[in-house]
Amino acid sequence: MRRGNTVFRYVHYEVACALLAFCAAVVSAGVVFGVEGAPETSGGVGRAVVFGLIYLALVAGFGVLTVSRIKWFGEGRDFDKAVPLQEPAAVLPTRGEEYRNCVNVLLFVVMAACAVGGGLFWERDLALFPLIFASAWLARGWWVARWERRHGVLLWKGRVRTQPLADDQYLYSSVRQPEGSARDA
After folding, report:
1. pTM metric for this prediction
2. 74-99: per-residue pLDDT in tens?
3. How do strand 153-159 and strand 171-175 relate by DSSP bridges?
4. pLDDT tens digits, 15-31
5. Which stretches within 67-129 are classed as H helix?
6. Other CB atoms closer than 10 Å to residue 135's CB: what's the count?
7. Which residues of 120-133 are buried (b: 16+ CB within 10 A; e: fewer)?
8. Pairing between strand 171-175 and 83-84?
9. Beta bridge partners of 174
């Protein structure tokens, strides 16, 4: 990747954020449940798990709505406005950089700290709060990956110095390479 260019796959960022949120939930649950004990429910653990899974499914549905084509709500219309990269080989990151640019350590620290703080000082169940974000980000990543496959392009977020975006654009696109191409090597 050339100096001054910071681009990363939209899908990879969403999935990386989901993984970070899941890890923050695991860390915070370990700390909070280790100090305070596991939360108790009047209806039993099974009922709480079923309620939690239904809630996560609803949040995932909301996540999909945020990348839909619904006017004033979803980002899906912006995918069609993605600016094609003029020189993808000179701009796109290498395989290792591609994933490294997606990891947002500050997001993990903030989510874990908030979940631990909320779990210790308010309600133990808040230790699992990052799972809500993980569900939405994972659903968004799935929907955008589906959109990319249907349209034959890859969506990139970030900044390319030689190719600035207009005010109403925030994504770049590149042609999706077939499996086994030089990009995969």
Report:
1. 0.80
2. 777 788 878 887 777 767 777 767 77
3. antiparallel
4. 999 999 999 999 999 99
5. 76-80, 88-91, 95-100, 105-121
6. 23
7. beeebebbbbbbbb
8. parallel
9. 154
